[in-house]
Each structure stands twice: as structure tokens, then as C-alpha cells.
Write a structure and sequence with these properties.
There is one protein chain. This protein has 155 residues and is mainly alpha-helical. It is 64% helix and 8% strand. The strands form 2 sheets. It has a two-stranded antiparallel ribbon. The chain has a two-stranded antiparallel sheet with strand order 3-4.
Length: 155
């Protein structure tokens, strides 16, 4: 065993397709491919090529179906393509893996807002705020949705 930065690592023979980080996690070629595809999808999103972005995220998810970041961005791309029901189903898939994810709750609320379902949008924002009370975007969206639903109070 070796100690690197106070952490124990098992000495193993390295193969050409992987390496170890200081935490001992083995990085594989598949990890590199999925992250490269994810980054390519992000670039396509920045170019507003959302269909291409979805394809990149799908390829990344073929490598790792539980790659939460790729699922979130895929759902957000579908949102931009006005495929709201598909975006909701993808966000629900992420919430099945991580029910406490405030970013996903906020994005799900955004989809409900665009669908003019303000009550569900408000519920989603409330959950996002419950999980992270410091999420300023969730608070902002919450105030907007309350106003649109006619539930804002004069202060």
C-alpha cells in the first residue's frame, strides 16, 4: 500500500485504459467518453442546437444511464424544444434517483410555468426552497409564479 496525501491506495498494476485519482476512484475510458459527450452537448446547447445536444446527452447516457448531469441537461434541452411532457418525465427520472435535488425541482417548476400550470410550478419551487433555502433562483421563480397565480400579497 502507498500513502498519497495521507490516503491509502492499493498498489495495483495500471492498465493503459484507466488511472487512479487520489481518492482511489478508477477513471476508465468510458468515464472520459461520457464526459466528453456531455461537454459536447453543453457546447451544442450554447449554440442553441438543442436537438444535437439531446443526441450528445443520449450517447453519454448510453455509457452511464445514471449520469445525473446529462439527464438534467437533456431535460432542459427538451424544455427549450417545447417538449414539456418529455422534459417533465426526464426530471421525474432524476428525482427518482435524487429526490432532494433542488435544481431539478426548480427546472420542473419552470416547465410547469411554461405550461401555464402555476399551482404545480409553485409546488415545485416550494420543494426546491425546502431542499436549499439559499437557492435565489427558486425564490425568484416562486415569487413570479405566486404573482401569476394571483396569490401575491401587497407589502
Amino acid at each position: 500500500m502507498e500513502k498519497i496525501f495521507g490516503r491509502k491506495l492499493l498498489s495495483e498494476k495500471k492498465d493503459d485504459n484507466s488511472s487512479r485519482t487520489a481518492s482511489g476512484y478508477k477513471i476508465t475510458q468510458d468515464d472520459i467518453k461520457k464526459v466528453n459527450l456531455y461537454n459536447k452537448g453543453l457546447n451544442k446547447m450554447s449554440e442553441e442546437k438543442f436537438e444535437d445536444a439531446v443526441r450528445c446527452f443520449d450517447l453519454s447516457l448510453r455509457i452511464d444511464p445514471f449520469f445525473v448531469d446529462a439527464l438534467i441537461k437533456k431535460g432542459y434541452s427538451h424544455f427549450h424544444l417545447k417538449q414539456y411532457s418529455l422534459a417533465i418525465s426526464i426530471f421525474d427520472q432524476v428525482l427518482d434517483m435524487d429526490i432532494n435535488n433542488p435544481e431539478v425541482w426548480n427546472l420542473k417548476g419552470l416547465v410547469y410555468y411554461k405550461s401555464k400550470n402555476y399551482e404545480k410550478a409553485i409546488e415545485c419551487c416550494e420543494k426546491a426552497i425546502d431542499f436549499n433555502p439559499n437557492n435565489s433562483m427558486a425564490w425568484y421563480n416562486y415569487a413570479c409564479y405566486l404573482t401569476l397565480a394571483g396569490r401575491a400579497t401587497k407589502g
